[in-house]
Every structure is written in structure tokens, then in C-alpha cells.
């Protein structure tokens, strides 16, 4: 309605000018001047030397003020004698003129720096500041990083033995998983991709629950319907993993907007890989969140590879962090192998998203040490020495362990006891999950419709007939009964 009224006013002005009706136009000043809560002009980054207590200030951007309708109408009276260098009062904000034809550079030789706290030896970089963590928090973070690493190792072996059908590891990205989870509240809604089981682990999802899901047994909350590693838990505010890439980003913007409307002290957190940023949903999600000023943190795990496609073949931009600026979103690049840096950045991003109300983009740099999945052999497209370098020299678990040891909070004895205990729990969880029977066949067709439609009933009938005809081709422990 407001847009129609503005257009009508302009048309009326031209009509009055044509017929000689001169007079004072009743300018309508109903378009308000919008001010974004992000007040700083800085739109992206944090340098390693900046103290963490000003991260929130640097995580900032402002929305340009909208043009006032009255000024638009005034411009219609402009004469040929007006200054050619005046600014263009355009919807969205004034734009200055220039007589020089100059294109904005598509990319810059100087890349956005990467925020970090620890060096590769696990020692705190002199002059750095970060969100402080106490002994209890640091030990839990490290313990969960080790647990995630061991869980990946044993479940990957179980898949290779044919005991589960599929698996994806988080090798090289343990710090992103655990440190980001540690910086969030249990009320924050997490929308994962498929390499974030550590977030769920931190929130209390048990090793037995992980095993039940991977084996798809009756104890699995998903009733065995999803592929392995497609975890979900409403209890832990962890939206079930969806195989299609990037679909969770527009959903995250919507969920965050709902939290904002309900005035909740929480945000949405959406994870995505570098390959997922090539999907349209990535751009739609960021734009929706920016325009709606929704409290959502977009965490991109830039691990160098989208399956077998290197980032050099995915985009010409300087990684992901610069894409946030294009949408008016404050952004930061973080060393994903540095647990303290990830924790500090996500902690500040959450504070910004909730207290200032708006999205934040965090790009984490951490190499994907493992294969994309058990369906992939990364040695076919990556040199072994490259993988080994990141597995040893840049290992996030080793780095954080050194820092915890330097702090006097961890010993060799603690390490041995932790690994012995976790291995015992994992082996037991796998054995229990493997022995638990599968959900009955009828569960495959339940929970979607109150009354199943005829086509669904026909599919169930055909499946039962096929199983009865070829029983050797189907698992013997699946009950055909309701």
C-alpha cells in the first residue's frame, strides 16, 4: 500500500506540472529512517591481536538508512543548475557520484586474516586475548574431543567390517564441533550438516544413542528410517540431519526469526561445509537472515574439499568470510584447529546475534583429514603427505591437549584412563546396538498420515510380498508384523 501511494504521488506531481497546477505539494513523509542495531562501519574481521572483549564490537555492520519519500519527491523539482556531484538519494541510502569509471575489484591479493589464540605447539600467542575458560570447562572440551575422535575411529571400523552401512568422520574438525558447542546455550537450536556429531555429544547424547542410530535398531529415536550419522534430538534442540545440502540454512533463518518474535534468549546455529555455499539455499538463507535481522549464527566449515572438488575450483572469492559482507552480515575467519579461538569467536557471535539481533557468519579453516565418507577414497585426489601434515602437525586434538597440559590440568595418566574408559564404553555400545532387534516393518509406513492413503497401503503390500518371495535378500531380524 505504501509503495502504491508513493508511486501515485509521483504521478500526481507530473500531472500537476503538465497542466500548470502549481502549488505546495503535500509531501508524505511516512517512510521511516531505519537504523540497524549494528552501529560500527566495520563489517568483517578480527585480527589475532585484538582482545576478545571487543570482538562483539568488531562483529558489526549497519543497515544503510532508507530514503525518505519526501526527499524523493523534492528531487523531481531539481533544475539543470543543480550540482552534478550531489549524492543520489536512492532507496537504501545515499550513493555518491563519481566522474571516474572504475570497477570494484572482484578479489584482492590481500586475504582476510584468520583469528587464532594458540600456535601449532599449543602455546598461547603472546598478546592474544580470548574468552577465558576454567579447568572444568577445558577438561570437558578436551575429553569430548578425544571421545569424538575415538567414536569416529571405531564406527568407521565397524562400517568397514560390514556391521553398519555408512559413516562419516569428523577427523580434523573436532575443535569446531566441541568448542562451538561449548560456547552455545542448550536453548540454542542447532541445524547441523552431517559433520557435527560433537555438538550433540556435548549436549548429552550418549554413546549408546549414537550406536543405536547408526545400527538403526528399535532403540533409535528415528526408528531406523534414516541413514547412519543422520542424528536428531528434539530433547537436545538438534534438528535431524538432512542429506540434501544447505536446505537447513533458510530454515535456520526462519527459526531464528521465530525466536526473535517470541523474545527468546536464544539463537539458531546452522552449520555448512564449503561445498554447501555453492548452493542457492546458502545465499537465500543469508539474505533472509540479514533482512529480517534474525539471531542466527552461520558456521561454515571450510575444510578445503567438497568431496573431491578443491576450494580453488569452487569459487574465486577469498573463501567464505567475504560473502557475509555482500549480505550485510558481520563475519569472521577463525582457525578451526584452535579450540580456544573457535570457542571465543562463537561465544562473541552468540552474544552479538542475541543482544544486537542479527546474523553472524563464522568461517572456520580446518582441513578434512578423513575421507568425505565411507563411500569415498580421498587418496585418489589428494596427496598422502598433505593429509599426513594436517593429521599430525595441525591436529586440533593434539594442539588443545598441549595447552591443557601447559595449564597444569592434564597428565599422561589422565590421558590413559580417559582413552581406556571411552574405548570400553564404545565397544559395549556397539555390541548392545548390534544385538537389539530392528523396528518392525510397519514402522516404515507410520507417523506421516493419520489414515494412510491407498497408494501407501499398496506400497506396503508390495514390499511384504517381495520380502516373502525373496527372504534371502532382506535382513532376517526385521519383523514383518505390525
From TrEMBL:
This is 3-methyl-2-oxobutanoate dehydrogenase (2-methylpropanoyl-transferring). Its cofactor is thiamine diphosphate. GO terms for molecular function: branched-chain 2-oxo acid dehydrogenase activity; metal ion binding. Pfam families: E1_dh. Heterotetramer of alpha and beta chains. The gene is LOC18592465. One of its GO terms (cellular component) is mitochondrial matrix. It catalyses: N(6)-[(R)-lipoyl]-L-lysyl-[protein] + 3-methyl-2-oxobutanoate + H(+) = N(6)-[(R)-S(8)-2-methylpropanoyldihydrolipoyl]-L-lysyl-[protein] + CO2. InterPro entries: Alpha-ketoacid_DH_E1_comp, DH_E1, THDP-binding. GO terms for biological process: branched-chain amino acid catabolic process. It comes from Theobroma cacao.
